[in-house]
Design goal:
The protein is built from 4 helices and 29 strands. By secondary structure, it is mainly beta. Strands 1-26-25-24-23 form a 5-stranded antiparallel β-sheet. Strands 2-29-28-27 form a 4-stranded antiparallel β-sheet, with no helix packed on it. Strands 3-4-5-6 form a 4-stranded antiparallel β-sheet, with no helix packed on it. It is globular, with a radius of gyration of 22 Å.
Length: 375
Amino acid sequence: MAEALAPEVEAFVGDRSRRRFFTRAGAAVLATLAARRGLFAQQPATRDRDWTGTIPTRYPDPDIVVLDERFAKYKIGNTPIQRLYHSPNMLWAEGPAWSGVGRFLLWSDIPNDVQLRWLEEDGHVSIFRHPSGNSNGNTFDYQGRQISCQHGTRRVVRHEQDGKTTVLAESFEGKPFNAPNDVVVHPADGAIWFTDPGYGSMMNYEGNKGPLELKEAVYRIDAKTGAIAKVADEIDKPNGLCFSPDYKKLYVSDTGEPKAGEHKPIKVWDLSADGTKLENGRVFCSMQLGEMSGGADGIRADEDGNIWASAGWVGDGYDGVHVFAPEDGKRIGQILLPEICSNVCFGGQKRNRLFMTGSSSLYAVFVETRGAHIS
């Protein structure tokens, strides 16, 4: 049985004349009264939630958690987190990227050597590319071409519009890359930036198994010359990366062994005046949450500069997405998932839908902001 409304709320609903004179201040009072009765204050329900969609989720979604009032405006009250796809055969979903032209979400299943595609028009999921070079991170450049980081070949490749594949990076200073992980494109000069932490290099992928020959680092590929430059290696395991909305900063998640007080941080650098180098490296935020210390993987920025970071390896109350404010790096919100979240991207026709790859599933939720970049 539904809980009876508080007398103050019943009086408000029943008096139409008063509704005409209701002000924003009155709305705030009403929300406070209702929250005290538990109408809006819900506890996260990740563990007991029916993710099949058979049993509906009561709005507002309790697994979209406001930790700081700065996040409240991004939470939509009448939308749930949706599990768009799940398969027990999918081993590790990664690298989501949105195609604005094709209106589909592309992602990798690394161990199964396949890329999958979810169509916006009807939710249909199909195989997009197999084999995929055990691809991890994906993105689309400003000509609509797909760029992928491949674990199996230790390469960064671009899939051309005629179906051919161009190898963009496979070695540095005569040594093979470890296992390129995630990738972004700068719109001003078309340069491709990628991370190379080495995850996957010891797995039994053909031609890939073996020790790391390069220090883990962040690299930049010049769009005109194809020259590859190492731009940062003062980081243990550079993983996900993204630009700020104005492309003046580069954020990189570090998933290596945490140094004293860092707790697997997300780091940030300023781009040099010519946009080719990184300067003033520093810690942006810590992934420590109370006594829980997990790590960030894929990251994306919204148009306000907030950083949306996939998070995992802890459990309920942590795994999912953590959102950090650009001003101070403070965690302002969470989206809780029942699986480790590996990566995120914004997509949909208005870029206001956050897609999340989580272990063996694909999730999505509408938010009251847009992604800062095309993929």
